[in-house]
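Subject: Succinate dehydrogenase

B.,
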Amino acid sequence: MTTIETPRSGKIGSGKVAPKYNRSGSSRGNFEMIAWLFMRLSGIVLVVLIFGHLFVNLLVGEGIHAIDFGFVAGKWADPFWQFWDLAMLWLAMLHGTNGVRTIINDYAEKDSTRFWLKMVLYAATLVIIILGTLVIFTFNPCPVVDGVQLPGGFCPAP
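Prediction pasted inline below.
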């Protein structure tokens, strides 16, 4: 009869995790459970936000042929669409960041590597969320530069 060793155990049949697979640090409480729940709930909300976005941009009116600078300017003139796109940006970034964080935790073996990869991930996420939020709320389709109104066409006369 052959005995099969318990996965990741130091001894046959011990059921304990071998020391090389233990991570340093204490228990993080419910964080991983909350992160798991966030992934499920944000995924459901993102499906609604994304399909709503695609429906309005691609199927309503002239469809894809209507999407240009003026279309975006008109859409972001309405606070409803600003908050819709903001929610989509924030949820997509936080959902993706949480997924990549999980991958880093699973595959980065050294604590220092795991730390620095997550720091780069969090910094990139923060920059994109801040810049995206600024673009959505400070977007001005009719800027005036040195008394000249740009870009023209759909902007009212000064």
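The chain has one domain: 29-140.

T.
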